[in-house]
Design brief:
The protein is of the alpha/beta class. It is built from 9 helices and 13 strands.
């Protein structure tokens, strides 16, 4: 009988350990201030701080995995990591393939950056990163879309004349324009998408629920707004 009790207790303990599992957080590491690689070679930025706090509240251990943007959804689905936390806007198209938590940022403005404030966007050649809400927006417009794998390449396309302008998140472009006198933000902005959330596999409903609860608690106690203010990533909740 004692042996049976001990075995049952061991199984219960084992189940508890597996429930407090390590969760692999997939990010791009190339889209400041949301996520980037710092001088120590580590993932940093708003989403690193947010993800670590969410894992702590959900009693999960975070492990950070860097993945190129253009394969970030397929590699989530195939099991290379357990979440996407990479500045990914919630859209109906993406929601057909993966699930999202509630948003942890409000819908953020997308902005155009060019070499001149006089660029006529109608019929222009506009650069955007592949598989982003901005590339989809341009593809549906009267402009010509040129896509690139990384955000840095979209900026280079404007600098070298491959594109008349780039469309990306305002919070990404603003510091770049501030640091480079040759680049200017245009007055026109676009509001696309439904805010940013964590992506999870459709089969991982329990994990999504844990992160949803953690996000809700950060909204309720003001911690999320404090991070948004610190990293200047959009409107407050």
């Amino acid at each position: 009988m004692n042996k049976l009790i001990l075995t049952t207790a061991a199984l219960a303990l084992s189940a508890g350990i597996s429930f407090a599992e390590t969760v692999r957080m997939g990010t791009e590491g190339a889209y400041p201030p949301y996520n980037f690689i710092n001088d120590a070679g580590e993932v940093d930025g708003f989403e690193r701080k947010l993800g670590d706090e969410l894992c702590a509240r959900a009693k999960l251990t975070c492990e950070w995995v860097v993945n190129d943007w253009d394969s970030i959804i397929p590699n989530l689905v195939s099991g290379n990591y357990d979440t996407i936390i990479a500045g990914m806007s919630i859209t109906a198209e993406r929601d057909e393939v993966i699930d999202f938590t509630q948003n942890y940022t409000q819908p953020d403005a997308s902005a155009y950056m060019a070499l001149s404030a006089d660029v006529n966007l109608s019929g222009a050649v506009i650069a955007a990163q592949t598989n982003t809400i901005q590339s989809g927006f341009i593809a549906a417009s009267d402009a010509t879309l040129v896509e690139f794998s990384t955000p840095e390449e979209t900026i280079s396309a404007v600098r070298n004349g491959e594109a008349d302008a780039v469309l990306a998140d305002l919070n990404y472009l603003a510091p770049i324009a501030d640091a480079d006198a040759d680049l200017v933000l245009l007055a026109q902005t676009e509001l696309i998408g439904g805010g940013i959330g964590l992506g999870v596999r459709e089969s991982d409903g329990a994990l999504r629920a844990k992160f949803d609860a953690a996000i809700a608690s950060m909204k309720a106690d003001g911690t999320l707004n404090a991070l948004i203010t610190e990293w200047e990533v959009g409107e407050l909740f």
